[in-house]
Amino acid sequence: MPLRIDVITIFPDYFAPLQLSLMGKAQQSGLVTIAIHDLREFTSDRHRSVDDTPYGGGAGMVMTPEPWGQAIDAVVTDQSTLIVPTPAGKLFSQPVAAELAHSTHLIFACGRYEGIDQRVVEYYRPRIDVRELSIGDYVLAGGDVATLAMIEASVRLVPGVLGNPESLVEESHQLPGVEYPSYTKPPTWRGLDVPEVLLSGHHDQIARWRAEQSTIRTTHNRPDLLPGS
Ligand SMILES: NC(=O)c1ccno1
Hints:
This protein is an alpha/beta fold and about 230 residues long. It has helices spanning about 20-30, 65-75, 95-100, 120-125, 145-155, 165-170, 205-220, and strands spanning about 5-10, 30-40, 50, 60-65, 80-90, 105-110, 130-135, 190, 190-195. Its EC number is 2.1.1.228.
């Protein structure tokens, strides 16, 4: 049963990259199906309006609930997970990507402006799994880029999508901490040599060096991921 993904957005063209590379191959192989829906197709006024001023005042505009209800109803099933990208959401992570990779149906609601009327989340929450997710502590212009990131991080974990599942084993955020640095040919580049141990053929020494490098890198870049932190 392929993972089905429906993306609802006012900028369908943002998702053209999903036809390329690994994401494109995953769809061609039938492991994943991805459909992009223009929210404006679900409006009923001649201006195809999708936003209005916020109740309670404040800057910016809020996306009105009606088009969202129509659009989500057009694709939702009782197996759906509705994902709303928002800086106010729970933090998306590799474990969350792994959960989503094993879902049946994901619906991404890409908000813009000041976001989507909260009643959309409130309406679907008692009916299906609803997740407000953030890809980091910063604010984007909308949920589209966050959706692209979450789709790519999740789809690559769908069994069969990556040619060599081994490459999932040692990557950052799969193991505790971040991954060791990688090197390839040439052995010397602009006076910089590849660490000698990597050319030694001693697999135990290479494994030990990589574990040490992972700890050094994690300590420097992401001490919050160190065991016990
Ligand atoms: N940080 C985020 O995930 C986000 C989503 C929309 N704007 O920011």
